Here is the input.
Amino acid sequence: MNNLNKIIVLVFWALPFWSSAQLSADELYKMLDSLVARPTVENIQRLENSAHTFSSTVNARNEQLTLVIVRCNLGYYLEKNGDLAKSMENYEDAYQRFESNHLSDYDIFENAVVPLAALYTRQGDYLLAEELLRKCAAHAKNTANNSLLFNTVLSLSALYNSTSRYEISYILIKETLKKKDIPLHTGAALKNNLATAYFRIGDFEKAKQLLSEIMVSTGLNHVNAYKSLAFIALKEGQVEIALDYFEKAKTALLTNENASSREWVNLQVEEAELLLEIGNIPEAQNILQNAMSVLLPSHSGNALPDKSILYPDRNFLRIFDVYASTTTSLVDALGAYDLANYVTNLLQQEYISQETKMIHRAVVKHRTEKCIDLLWKRYSDTNEQVWAQRAFTYAEQGKASVLMERNILNKENDENSYENTFELKKLLRKRDKLTDQLLRAQFKNLDDQVLETFSSELADVARQIKISQSNLPNPLRPEINLTDLQQRLKTDDAVLQSYFLGTRRNYQFIINDSGIQMLRLPDTEELTPLILEFVHLFDGPEAINNDVLNFTKIAHRMFEVLQLKKGLYKKHLVLIPDGLLNFLPFESLLTEPTNGMSFSKMPFLAVSQKVAYAVNAKRYLDSENNSKIKSILGIFPIFKGSSDELSYSEDEAKALQDNMSAELILESQATKTNFIEKAKKHVLIHLSTHAASGNFVVPAHVQFYDDLLYLPELHSLDMYGKTIILSACETGIGKLQKGEGAISIARGFQYAGASSVLFSIWKVNDQSTASVMSRFYESFKETGSVFESNHIAKLSYLKDITVTNTKKSPYYWNGFAYYGAIASSEKSNNSLWWWGGLILFLGFLIFLLSNRKK
Here is the structure.
């Protein structure tokens, strides 16, 4: 309420100053006074309507500030009333209006930015929240505003605890607690957040010590401290003490006259979680129903609510997840998880950045694992395909969904399905471009004013994106039709093997044109070391060659563990990796045990099978054969005379020139600007250069002669429908994001709209890569198929008698994975035979008819 008091004081101080303002401003103040005196729904609605009317005519700076103050108050009372969406809209409007009009004489940070960041945190938009809070921290430091600093640290530490960054949280709080004159209630709240961080990392003693310090303070409400002590006691096995502390928390909340209904809901959900832990299922279910009745007044009874009455609120996620754990009914459990996923999708519509969306896909994947666990039990008991089908649907919903959402948007824009999608795509690309500019400004240590300009522009674009997204008729969610998928597999003469790697358990789905099979893989504790052992063999050229027999042993064992033999009865194999399997070179696995030392004679999967990869089944199903590649662009910086020189890149350029009609951009002409401009005119783009997977500071990037292309800028480009050949190191490597895969250069091109990508999954050798690529284009000249040519080039290199056995290690020839449509030259040949047969048949008919006339 302290912030509210400041707002009210400023309103009364401002009245004399604006006595000459328009009458509507005076009326607005009177309505605000009425709201402060009686914060009813009717008064909120009345002020909100009037503010909207006033905003259409406001011009003068003092009138703009009037509206800012009103919007801040509306944000406060709407949040208290539980309307988080409208609360955020009002705070956002106030902040944007204050900044864009360069207003002053008002603490916009305390009254709008901090509470707005807190709302973003509650709704899971952590990146936006952190961005705002960093601005608050900088402003507090520059203006020596300790009150703002304390509130900012309080919000930041809560955010860090919510995103499992506990070490950053307690370092920040401990530094802040060293300062003097911290208000009693703020100090207690900071200590409670610090105790939470200690509790989460398992240091119960430090957590209890801090909470004890809070408990001895008088004049404070100890709800949060009691809750924390309750869960610590539960972890220590002291059930009765835990229940006693929780009862004290409920009593403390009852004595708080300003407690909102939301606070009661939070407490009820936490109590249900505690009761679930100790096995009191009936009482946990009753409490969850009470919580739902508060959030959904129109819902009654013990059944799950209809999704039509749900709205984006993270409290629902906890309620439905806990509810699913309390029921023994498969239908009810899956129904609760479905509702949680539905609310997640509603929340996703409000998020601006793909980074925020990806953070929450990790939670969705954990929920998906629980669904698949339940369905596996039913499938293994009955062997009925319907349960495997449902499990596969759940697995697919959580795979690369952020990438697919963008791909669907790209496609809809291209087909002009909706009026708003074109504008939304423009805004998203503008945001990516601004993000890149801000990133570069930070790398150059430009002054704060420049950074603030980019940040303000980003905030403005973010607001426009929110409005544009809200105008879309439906969420852009990919759906998979199993019948269509099986028909596509029949057409491609292929088997699809899709993997799901969970936190504890792992599964595999095998689909062909006649059915689906679900298999259980070793648990994560056993499987992860096996995958890493094989992947690390490709860290350099020595590991395999130094112990070939060890390689053959591991390569065949991995083949069996991943149960790939079940997919070898068709001509083609489609693989959908997950988790660490994104980095595993499947085609280097051995289909049979061998003791031989000659690589060319080893039974590699690449020898027996033509393999294509996909990020998920929907992406494979929608993939189109780009058979009409008439224009090719080759980018070859080469970097002659420098430490980055790629001498064999010239051989690649010559092979491309000799075999294809292509536009080649060489050496100093291979600039980033030339690439961006020239790429617009070509369908297939070949990049032979350096690339890096990035780290926590520097994003993944591609190197051109004059500059680097970072992921954010790549995301801003239009690569719709293009085929990309990435002849560079680590273009498929990046931070592994649960449910989304590696955030790599290859994914960046897919996000920008590329239909198919050939990329590397380790630091490939320059010389062998040039050789493989030369063979690739020799084949591509004949087949016109990237899929086919990738396979032929690998086998050509492996069987070449001029290449030494050492250089035939899969490290040298199998560094590239193809993600795209199966486009076999056999299909082209069959088509020619069909047309040839038709022409002969028509010729025969004409001959018969002409003889009859004679």
Summary: The chain is about 60% helix and 10% strand.
